[in-house]
Amino acid sequence: MSWRPTTLHVSFLTLAGWALFLGVLTGRADLVVVAVPLIAALVAGRWAAAPPALQIHHEVSADRLFETDRVTVTVTLRADRPAPLVELLEPLPPRVRLERGCHHAFFTLRAGEEVRWEFVLRCEGRQRLRLGGPHVRQWGPLGLAAAETRYRAPQTVAVYPHLTPLRHPPRPVRTQTFAGNHVSPAQGEGIEPGDVRPFAPGDHVRRVNWRATLRLNTLHVTQHHRERNADVVLLLDTLSEVGPAGATVVDVAVRGAVTLAAAYLARKDRVGLIEYGGQLRWVKPGSGRAQFQRLLDTLLDASVVFTYVTRDVDLIPPRILPPQALVVALSPLLDPRFVRAAGDLAARGFDLVVIAVSPVAPARAAVPRGPVADLAARLWALERRAQLDEYRRRGLTVVDWDGVGPLDAVLATLRRPHRRRVLA
Amino acid sequence: MLRAAALSLVAVLVAFPLAVLPSPPVSWLAGAALAVAGAGVVARLVPLVTAGGSLALIAYALALVIARPEAGPVAATAFGATLVLLLALVHFAGRVRGAAVGPSVIASQVRQWLAIVAAGFVAAGALTAGGAVLGPALGGTPLPVVVVAAGLGALIAVAGIVVLVSGRKNPPAPTGR
User: Whose CA is closest to B131, among B77, B172, B93?
Assistant: First the structure.
């Protein structure tokens, strides 16, 4: 922090110099007198007391929130001695909009006075929002000199992707051993009726199917399917990225992944995550709120990291990618390495659903509008549709999502095979 | 609001030379000063206002040289005080643009400006009184000596101000609670 003369200081000196020079040149005392108020102001600026020490307290209302949520920044300022003019400026990070108040303010403080300054920010995109604290500038008399510093109070706010309700997540074909919401092919305790079989010793009387018993003249019971949970692994493609910052295909895919994770965890499933990109990162399947938080934190940092190294899905341990798991891949299908990896998983018998996030809309948002761009976008969309049809012909389950409409509407049209074979 | 006040100060500033001598060369210079300083006020640019102020000062000097009126220390001090207020106001308007400013800030700044202008008037009065006392004593001094002494005095004054203002100490940094 150091004093520095401002442009006003230079202006005063210039005009005082001019007045004195013209006074000497013309021999008029009036012009020397004109310089006197300017010199008096400069001297007053010099003789002003040193700026007081400021006590600053900087806090934010939340450290975790979702996209489009608001965070209130509060700065409390206190001076032990009078501060004639204090300027505070909190630089706004990218993808943050000022919702209420002002992030730039001026205050005059009396001795011991405390002022409270508040403004509300709206977080527009997934990020780790870093608010480093305000820039503080104290102005001397008339603004002839200024002393500035940065009050450092690094605070990070995790802005998680926006969560939308999902009623129709892809139904897993295979289930696991723990209780859940999916109807299992295995027979046992449950509420979903299955087959009817002859009564056997040990069967409960309330299981007797009286209609079948009357028709067949022997006691028959209704079997039920068990309700079991499933393992779901979200496979996120971070090999390629298209679109403007904050609205790329990776951002759209992350939004979809969070929505799917929340929907499956609400159904008592175990959800894991694999980020397939320059960095191969994963989260072991698990359930509950802690797992959701783990997934959110991992998805927050999902980004494209360039690398020449191609990592195979063979590297992923089986505990991360269980053989019975439903794999939901979210990808723009722009990088052939991801397409190859998805094909490998399908060929190995994994229950795979590919949600193809369309890169056309984000790419259109990143380039200026024009007839050529419109034509290119239409051609690209047609080419992409043909490409997805080709993948479907190869046996992949592919759902096309433009990233603009709700994911639920897209997934509602997905037809999944029924696999309710009766297990002894 | 601030800009309107600054524009009225620009009008007052260019009125000084015209009040001394409303002749064509002074009017042209005053018009140029009005245009440049007015543009500086609208754009909140202190260097432009300084240029306009310099033009007004030259116009004032020209008017004094041509008209050769009696020395008027009050009008000269008012001219200097107007320059101080104009520059301070434009600089302040530029700083607070787009920022939240409380009424106490404006009141405090106005008090400060008026105090400094009052100090300028007192200093000008003291200088004038000192000049009036010393004038008869130095009445017989040859003109070249007076000019050299005045030039040296002006040079020393400017150099002294530069040294005084640039020799500030660093203030303490703000602390967290």
Answer: B77
In this structure, are residues B45 and B94 in contact, taking their beta carbons and an 8 Å threshold? Answer: yes
Do B99 and A104 make contact, defined as CB atoms within 8 angstroms?
A: yes
Q: What is the DSSP string of A390-401?
A: HHHHTT-EEEEE
CB contact under 8 A, A105 and B101: yes
Nearest CB neighbour to B131, from listed A29, A38, A136: A29
Contact A104 B98 (CB under 8 A): yes
- The complex's ipTM works out to 0.82
How far is CA A38 from each of CA A32, A205, B3, B85, B95, rounded to the nearest angstrom? 11, 106, 21, 10, 21
**How far apart are alpha carbons A275 and A18 in whole angstroms?**
69
Q: Judge: B76–A104 Cβ closer than 8 Å, yes or no.
A: no
Give the number of A-B residue pairs with CB atoms closer than 8 Å. Answer: 237
What is the C-alpha separation between A353 and A168, in angstroms, rounded?
Answer: 13
Q: Which residues of A touch B120 (CB under 8 A)?
A: 36-38, 40-41
Chain A residues with CB under 8 Å of B118 CB are: none
Cβ neighbours for A136, distance < 8 A, ≥ 6 positions apart = A54, A56, A86, A87, A88, A148, A149, A150, A151, B174
Residue A337 clears pLDDT 90, i.e. is over it: no
Say if CB A294 and CB A258 are below 8 A apart. no
DSSP symbols for A184-226: EEEEEEEEEEEEEEE--TT--GGGB-HHHHHHHSS-EEEEEEE
Q: Which domains does chain A have, with CATH numbers?
A: 2-47 (no CATH), 54-160 (2.60.40.10), 187-228 (no CATH), 231-411 (3.40.50)
Position A97, amino acid? R
Partner residue facing A40 (CB), from B102, B116, B175: B116
- Determine the distance in angstroms separating the CA of B34 from the nearest CA of chain A, rounded to an integer: 16
Which residues on adjacent β-strands are paired with residue A221?
A197, A208
A139-188 confidence digits (pLDDT tens)? 887 888 888 888 887 888 999 998 888 888 888 887 777 777 777 777 77
Per mean pLDDT, which range of A40-54, A194-208, B63-77 is the poorest?
A40-54
Q: Which of A385-394, A414-423, B7-16 has the lowest mean pLDDT?
A: A414-423
Those of residues 6-45 in B touching chain A at CB distance below 8 A are none
What's the mean per-residue pLDDT of chain B? 81
d(CA A227, CA A190) in angstroms, rounded, equals 6
Q: Which stretch of DSSP H or E encloses residue A56? A: strand A54-60
Specify the pLDDT at position A355. Answer: 93
Given a contact cutoff of 8 angstroms between Cβ atoms, the answer to whether A304 and A337 are in contact is no
Q: How far apart are CA A392 and CA A409, in angstroms?
A: 20
- Cβ contact (<8 Å) for B170 and A3? yes
Of A15, A36, A76, the CB nearest to B124: A36
Contact A50 B171 (CB under 8 A): yes
B50 to A35: CB separation less than 8 angstroms, yes or no:
no
Q: List the beta bridge partners of residue A231.
A: A270
Instruction: Return the pLDDT at A369.
Output: 86
CA distance B67 to chain A (A): 12
Angstroms from B6 CA to nearest CA on chain A? 15
Question: Chain B closest CA to A113's CA: distance in Å?
Answer: 13
Q: Give residue A251's pLDDT.
A: 92
